[in-house]
Amino acid sequence: APRIKPLDNNHQLSIDDLDSIKVIGKGNSGTVQLVRHKWTGQFFALKVIQLNIQESIRKQMAQELKISLFTQCQYVVTCYQCFYVNGVISIALEYMDGGSLADFLKAVRTVPEAYLAAICKQVLKGLMYLHHEKRVIHRDLKPSNILINHRGEVKISDFGVSAIISSSSAQRDTFTGTFNYMAPERISGQKHGHLSDIWSLGLVMLECATGNFPYPPRESFYELLEAVVDQPSPSAPSDQFSPEFCSFISACIQKNAADRSSAQTLSAHPFLSMYDDLNIDLSDYFTTAGSPLATFK
Q1: Nearest in space to 162 (alpha carbons), one of 188, 144, 185, 184
Q2: Which end of the chain, N or C, is less packed with Cβ atoms under 10 Å?
Q3: Is 277 a residue of the active site?
């Protein structure tokens, strides 16, 4: 059978043709399963979203997701189809066999600057696409939403999903799990734009470099809110990292959104090109440095 293309109406992907292989992720709003298409043998990641909200809102969300997930960018995870069956929304996504940056970090603990520059280049290309072409904010950029594969590709995932879930009344009051990557203006409930994603990017890159989340653990959401909003921004230790890396992090993690650089501006930052002559091979790095993943194909 011909391979299925994203949101292809000629070869309609049917949820009945997907065989579940195993659960590969669990989140606040549902699970992600590795599935295989019966006829083509293609693998997909099936994200199953369960929300306790009215039927009419769920139907509308399924429709919105279809529109928002139609992206054509090699730095954003591809959506193949969106299903709405028995009150559950399921999204068939491109399967990224290296898992997430969060999984990878657990295995390697820290990522050297040269590899981080190569990873960051791809994430910024994804953010430029979302911010400047799609004109959307990701809103939930964090290590578990940046996915990798054995080809050395890095892609942003879950864009659109987080925006729609957060706008549904069911999730408005649940500040669970991921608030710690939120920018100060967002965490305190003020107006926010695409520069909020840049703050999150800075925290993610700093965490990858140091092996620790940039803020010390807090007992409660309010203590974290106080730290993010009132205390000085985290920065990269200048005795451990290059001036270029420190400068890049500083350009992202500015408490005032207007002082942050855009994705476009950051893509020309010297940190991203300083290791170019090393010809970094992320494919080799992901497959050898990470935990040997049974799912690498």
Answers
A1: 144
A2: C
A3: no
